[in-house]
Amino acid sequence: MFDFASLWDVIVLLGIALALAPAFGSYLGRVYSNRPVVGDTLLNPIEAFIYRLLGTSPRKSMRPGEYMLALLLVNGAMMAFLFFFFAQQGRLPWDPSGAPDMSWSLALHSSASFTTNTDFTHFTNESQMSFASLSVAWPVALFLSAATGLAVFAAMVRGFVRRDGTLGNFYVDIVRSVTRILLPIATLAAIVMVLLGVPQTYTAIVVAHPLTGGTQTIYLGPVASYQSISLLGTNGGGFYSANMASPLANPSAISDLFATFVMMLIPFSTPFAFGQMIRRRSEAWPYFGTILIVFGIAFALFIAYQAASNPFLASINGLGAQTNGYPVGQETRFGLSDASLFQVVSVYGNVGANNMQIGSLSPVAQLVLLFGMFTQSTPGGEGTGFATLLLFSLLGIFVGGLMVGRTPEYLGKKIQTSQVRWAALAVLIHPATILLPFGVAILGHQVDLVGASAGATAHNFTSVLYEFTSESANNGSALSTAQFNDTTVFFNVTGALIMLVGRFVPIYVMLRVGGLFSEQDPLAPNAGTLRTASATFCLYLTLFLIITTALIFLPVMALGPLGQII
Question: 222, 135 in Cβ contact below 8 A?
Fold first, then answer.
């Protein structure tokens, strides 16, 4: 039987994180509205110097096309830097483990993965990444990719309050994202992790002598500082291949709970940043409610089906009667409740860090995680998750307005067909980047399910589906690749394209939608205006999000996770 008393620390953690969300969200909103905040005296001169180096000014505000061009220049330069570093890492200094150069296709996949905030890996960190790659190249992307998502959120939201067709300055937004949010919080989180036992050293390798004899190579490094920005920035890539299941990266149940809190901090606070920026704080609560409802249902289903008896063990003599739940692949050091909370927060927040083996979870638990990546917005990744929820909201308001004969408008601005077309594109590009490559992989015999270790099963189907979904959602978590080899040129190149399209096409849509709204003059509310700051709208948006996502992905859910139950 499941021990409900184990939920107390989960309840306390959720209470603390959610109680801090309004205050921290208000801080985020003030940062992106350029209002006075703590640290201005110290940081304003530093940021002014950086702006001079970049040749820009906070007074220059960009239109959507300019903003997107600046974004692509920064992210393109970052991807080129990472590609060169990974392709040449075996010839560069600081490689004590002798990691070789990456092949061109693996370097392409890895550089695209880290640039897009996905951090999906087709390699083993300890043997295929040099110490310089782990300590110098990769961390640059951890900061800049997260800052890019936050900048896009800020730019899109400005469209609801501006009337000049501009969205702000990308260079200013990305600098303030790093200096005001990511760097100070990641530094504080790293200090806490060190106190909790996570290594922070520039010693790369230590040779230990176990009691059983022989030697053991232990890989060390600046793990605490790496993990702090990885979790805070919804990157998720671990310093170790075992990610947060590694006892070095996650030594105790307390460190596991703290890591969960770090992952929750920004995504769950973003609705309140939105309310602060538009100066209508009541508008934040329906979005916060939608996120909590979907997340709460997901967590309840996940833990319920992980605690239920595994029917496939019941027929094993002497084992089925004593075995409860799906224990294989779970990190038992943390207990079912804490480990489950970490995993659901990670996937629904588009972090992608793991503290359990997803391929060993129950089929319904796998389905729960897939659904979180299908929505990408409950709460979703850094900045872009809430922007995706805004796009769902615009579609829902438009459809609801047409059904009841009300004027489709939001925050005093009309929702026109142009905004709806762009929002629909962002919603549809996600399944397209999953299902089209999936069909090519299967029909092109790039995945031989029949010859796989367990045969052509629904689990194998789910494994391939999960990989493409994780890449398209810029999530980075992986189910299992035991049934197929994903390190081929096909999967490296296809995965890179999926991540790039799944990241930058929706970003362009968000900027275009924000730009279209920023060209409008606000309208006075009237009797036909839909009241969005209400519990009714929260429930409507929740149902619209769930039903729309379920209708789009129901066929593949039936063939994959649900097919394992039958």
Answer: yes
Distance CA 427, CA 374 (A): 10
From the CB of residue 535, how many other CB atoms can be counted at a distance below 10 Å? 10
- Assigned domain for 67 exists: no
Among residues 469, 527, 530, 465, the alpha carbon closest in space to that of 498 is found at 469
- pTM flag (> 0.90): yes
CA nearest to 497, candidates 109, 73, 145: 109
Reduced to 3 states (helix: H, G, I; strand: E, B; else coil), residue 244 is: helix
Identify the helix (H) or strand (E) that includes residue 53.
helix 40-54
Q: How far apart are CA 547 and CA 563, in angstroms?
A: 20
Domain-located, residue 510:
yes
Beta carbons within 10 angstroms of residue 424's beta carbon: 15
- The first and second tokens of residue 152, run together, are 């896009």
pLDDT per position as a tens digit, 73-102: 999 999 999 999 999 998 888 877 788 999
Residues 155, 170 contacting (CB under 8 angstroms): yes
Determine contact, residues 377/287, Cβ cutoff 8 Å: no
Q: Looking at the chain, how many residues does it have?
A: 566
The token duo for 404 is 């009841």
Q: Identify the H or E element spanning 276.
A: helix 270-277
> What is the residue type of 343?
Q
Please, how many CA atoms are within 13 Å of residue 204, restricted to the half-sphere of its CB?
17
Q: In total, how many domains does the chain have?
A: 1
- Structural domain boundaries enclosing 403: 383-565
Q: Enter the DSSP assignment of 57.
A: -
pLDDT of residue 126: 83
CA distance linking residue 251 with residue 124, whole number of Å: 21
Residue 106 lies in a domain: no
Distances (CA, A) of 279 to 268, 275, 282: 18, 6, 9
Bridge partners (DSSP) of residue 219 are 205
Cβ atoms of residues 541 and 400 within 8 Å: no
Largest Cα span, the chain: 80
| Residues 6+ away with beta carbon under 8 Å from 353 | 230, 231, 236, 237, 238, 243, 244, 259, 263, 342, 346, 476, 477
Residue 127 region by backbone torsions, left for phi larger than 0, else alpha for psi between -120 and 50, else beta: alpha
The two structure tokens encoding residue 451: 């010859």
* DSSP symbols for 299-327: HHHHHHHHHS--GGGTTSTTTTTT--S--
In a domain, 109, yes or no: no
CA 220, 225, 231, 237 torsion: positive or negative? negative
Residue 397 and residue 415 in contact, taking contact as beta carbons nearer than 8 Å: yes
User: By the 8 A CB rule, do 532 and 160 touch?
Assistant: no
**Residues 6 or more apart from 11 whose CB is under 8 A from it?**
none
Residue 514 to residue 519: CA distance in whole angstroms: 9
pLDDT under 70: residue ranges of the chain: 1, 310-329, 448-456, 480-483, 527-528, 566
